[in-house]
Amino acid sequence: MAAFVDPHLLRGKTVLITGASGGIGFVTARELARRGAHLVLVCRDPARAENSQAAIVEAVPGAQADVLLCDLSLIANVRELAAEVGRRYDKLDVLVNNAGVMPGPLTITAEGHELSWATNHLSVHALTNLLLPQLDAAGQARVVTVASDGHWLGEIEPSQAARNDPEKYSSFAAYCDSKLANILFTNELAHRLDLTGITANCLHPGIVNTGLVPPTRSGLLKTVWGLGKPFMVSPERGAQTSIFLASAPEVQHISGRYFKHSKPARLLSSRAQNRAEASRLWRISEEETGIG
């Protein structure tokens, strides 16, 4: 028997989800629509965005699902996105930072940032900070960021030059660095918002069978990903903790925690629990985005 879903739980709530055109982002969006949320779907590809919007409305008749297009790898685009959100919506009840990439060869954006660092972390730092006025206007709001247990292999490089060094670059290491940054960002954000009505939590969705590693990828990562596929969870299961953190009444006042399987979990790296490291990351992110 399917679990009961309260269609009024998020009625009157506006929820913005990045990376909502597929995978756990799409499932999260659809399930929050079932709970009555007014969705703002942030997607990069227009065709995929249109398909996701149509699929949500088909699954949840009467659902409100707006689409905003944005390539989050560029901070200039993130600024434009936040400005558009500010024009359209008086308040934002939930922000789900879901978008993520694991690039192949070293890719430097037009703004000079390594692609996964820019997309997975800098855009989260920038968008969240830029949308704080809308989140604050909601009275009680939530920031949910999709991190990963991969954070235990991550470290925060001190400079852009270090992250962009082709001699040292590994796409998997860069991904793990960005996931550690997601956790440290959440910890610092929760600390800074302690006296507000905004909470900030992050999560590990599991090893999810999505398009994070594309079939065109070659090398060791593709091999490891292929061997691990039988043990991966579906996007339906992988989205459950995001859905829980975005909607469950019992976490309304919990902030600064890392969740797995919809429960608080132990961080795997001492770096992820280091307040000085979180503060250092915040300063680096402010310098690299001009926001914070």
Account of the 3D structure:
The chain is an alpha/beta fold and 292 residues long. The chain contains 11 helices and 8 strands. The chain is globular and about 50 Å long. The protein starts with 13 loop residues before the first strand and ends with a helix. Keywords: Oxidoreductase. InterPro entries: NAD(P)-bd_dom_sf (IPR036291), SDR_fam (IPR002347). GO terms for molecular function: oxidoreductase activity.
Overall 3D shape:
globular
Q: If you compute it from the alpha carbons, what radius of gyration comes out, rounded to the nearest whole angstrom?
A: 18 Å
Second-tier CATH architecture: 3-Layer(aba) Sandwich
Lateral strand order in the biggest sheet: 3-2-1-4-5-6-7-8
The major sheet is characterized as: 8 strands, mixed
Helix and strand element order: EHEHEHEHHEHHEHHHEEH
Question: What is the percent of helical residues?
Answer: 40-55%
CATH C-level label? Alpha Beta
Q: Kindly state the mean pLDDT as a whole number?
A: 93
CATH superfamily: NAD(P)-binding Rossmann-like Domain
**Structural classification:** alpha/beta
Return residue spans where pLDDT drops below 50 for at least 5 consecutive residues.
none
Q: How many H/I helices? A: 11
Overall number of structural domains = 1
How far the N terminus sits from the C terminus, by CA atoms, comes to 46 Å
Number of strands: 8
CATH topology value = Rossmann fold
- Percentage beta strand: 5-15%
